Amino acid sequence: MSPSVGILVGSESDLPVLEKCTARLEGYGIEYELEVRSAHRNPEGVSEYAGTARERGLKVIICAAGMAAHLAGAVAARTNLPVIGIPVASGTLSGFDALLATVQMPSGVPVATVAVNGAANAGVLAAQILALSDPELAERLEG
């Protein structure tokens, strides 16, 4: 079975933030893939990932990035799958800059945004989205 959730993180240093997200997904029995891809250091790789996500079986993409945090927006611009952004606390502004960069998207390019370092809620939101077409998952969410 191919993963239904794709997780991108802008930097390896942000991986610990995602532990609560992956734990939630695993707890619900949701398969996921996780890759490090930067919107600034590897824009072509991010574009390719987002552009092929649906044909690879993904249904939701979660993106975590700090500071300029353009990853979720770059992904949302290249797919019509739901994209969830996790602003990561880092830098001088402790994640406030990442929050604004993630939530302030132009019309037609939405990114569902959770709190700074809100990885657990990103996992829950992805599960809720998937549960719309998966009654068994919906039951697991109730428990």
Rounded mean pLDDT score: 96
* CATH classification, class level: Alpha Beta
Helix % is 25-40%
Gyration radius, in Å? 14 Å
Fold-level CATH name: Rossmann fold
Strand order of the largest sheet: 2-1-3-4-5
Number of helical elements: 6
How would you characterize this protein structure?
The protein is α/β, with parallel strands linked by helices and 143 residues long. It has a single domain, classed as 3-Layer(aba) Sandwich (Rossmann fold), CATH 3.40.50. 38% of the residues lie in helices and 17% in strands. It is built from six helices and five strands. The protein has helices at 19-27, 43-52, 71-76, 96-103, 119-131, 135-142, and strands at residues 5-9, 32-36, 60-66, 83-88, 112-113. The chain has a five-stranded parallel beta sheet, sandwiched between helices. Helix 1 (19-27) links the parallel strand 1 and strand 2 (32-36). The longest helix has 13 residues, at 119-131. The chain is globular. The two termini are 24 Å apart. The mean pLDDT is 96.
Task: Put the structure in a nutshell.
The chain is of the alpha/beta class. The chain has helices at residues 19-27, 43-52, 71-76, 96-103, 119-131, 135-142; strands at 5-9, 32-36, 60-66, 83-88, 112-113. 38% of the residues lie in helices and 17% in strands.
Quick tags:
single chain, 143 residues, Rossmann fold, 5 strands
Chain-wise SSE layout:
Layout: E1 5-9, H1 19-27, E2 32-36, H2 43-52, E3 60-66, H3 71-76, E4 83-88, H4 96-103, E5 112-113, H5 119-131, H6 135-142
Helix pairs in contact: 1-5, 5-6
